[in-house]
Design goal:
The protein contains 15 helices and no strands. The protein is mostly helical. Helix 4 crosses helix 12, helix 5 packs across helix 8 and helix 14 crosses helix 15. The longest helix has 35 residues.
């Protein structure tokens, strides 16, 4: 019968065979990734042209490879390139961590900020600066006198950030908790760590409080080469781990029942991904300070653009996070030049309106 006939026109791709339609789907996703990569590289080069010494984009590229004027090479390789690399690595780590949180918790509001990880890092940094005498160098750096010793502050910030993750995982193991309740637990931990930070600051001297506030502002320029190396290693390992688990994330995205039927240990995947994501986010926060909204907004934007296929969502979120942090760093330098604004304030100003827009679009749909 005529109505029983199935034509290729009823398949995706306007008459193409299913395999051809799927190949076109893959090509479109890859094209978006290529465009994002080119955009991030372009933003990075543009960022390195700015400063007291104006440098042409072509000269920036040559200076990166050690060619050109000595002064230009020194400015690019010693000052601008490390800052740009820090922004890229931090953006990639935070976006991948946010993407992983949102996947395994199946909650679009999951991020380092909403799970209490950033607040835990701030509490740890406050203890290091105020209680364990890590603040002498930090306050000196705030006044521009000397370089701060980052070891104690970074270690305590990392420990505080990981403490939030451990508490969440332990409480979720004691009593079975839904993904929504885990995020609410993170919000409660955020309030608890914020209260602890306030109490520690209450008994501190003015210079120590100033050092803590300066740390929480966030600063990409204070990351040393050794710290950047650590960030690169942690981010690279995290990226490999997340991409190796992309199919498990896709299965969990479709429902825990389906994931269990495919032989995936949902609890095991959730535990491993949260630990790795927390390690990546904690490393960035420990070295760079509080950086908000990158891990929350970047996966949201890419999910709207590419869908929830983690084969493409993970690298796209990483590129979007890097681009978002690079743009924020540029704005830090140009809004009230020659002053440099805190990176945390700019990421919030950039990220909050985008997130509100995405929420309203979701409501309208």
């Amino acid at each position: 019968m005529e109505e029983d006939k199935i034509t290729t026109a009823s398949l995706p791709g306007e008459g193409k065979a299913p395999r051809d339609a799927y190949a076109g789907y893959i090509r479109r996703k890859r094209l978006v990734l290529v465009v994002l990569f080119v955009a991030v590289v372009g933003i990075a080069v543009f960022s390195m042209t700015m400063g007291s010494l104006q440098i042409a984009p072509l000269d920036v590229v040559r200076a990166v490879f050690g060619q050109g004027d000595v002064r230009t090479v020194a400015a690019v390789q010693n000052i601008r390139l490390p800052r740009v690399l820090t922004a890229v690595v931090a953006g990639v780590a935070l976006a991948l961590a946010g993407c992983a949180y949102q996947s395994v918790l199946r909650n679009p509001l999951a991020s380092a900020s909403t799970l209490g990880i950033s607040q835990g890092a701030a509490f740890g940094a406050s203890l290091a600066i105020i209680v364990f005498a890590g603040g002498a160098g930090a306050s000196a750096a705030y006044e521009g006198i000397s370089t701060a010793d980052p070891v104690t502050t970074a270690l305590f910030a990392f420990a505080g950030a990981m403490l939030s993750t451990v508490v969440i995982l332990l409480l979720s193991r004691v009593r079975e908790m839904t993904p929504e309740s885990i995020v609410l637990l993170g919000v409660a931990l955020s309030a608890l760590f914020t209260a602890g930070t306030t109490i520690v600051q209450y008994f501190a001297e003015d210079s120590q409080v100033a050092a803590v506030v300066f740390w929480t502002f966030g600063d990409l320029g204070r990351v040393s080469r050794s710290q950047l190396t650590v960030m690169v290693l942690v981010t690279a390992v995290s990226a490999v781990f997340f991409f190796a688990n992309r199919w498990a994330m896709n299965a969990i995205e479709s429902g825990e029942g389906l994931a269990h039927s495919l032989g995936i240990s949902v609890n095991g995947v959730r535990l491993a991904n949260m630990l790795v994501a927390s390690a990546a986010a904690s490393t960035v926060v420990a070295f760079c300070g509080i950086v908000n909204f990158v891990g929350l907004v970047a996966p949201h934007v890419m999910r709207r653009l590419l869908g929830a296929d983690y084969r493409f969502l993970l690298p796209a979120s990483a590129l979007a996070g890097a681009g978002m942090l690079l743009v924020s760093d540029i704005l830090c330098h140009v809004v009230v030049a020659p002053l440099i604004l805190p990176i945390s304030a700019i990421t919030s100003f950039v990220g909050a309106p985008i997130f509100i827009y995405l929420l309203f679009r979701g409501v309208s749909r």
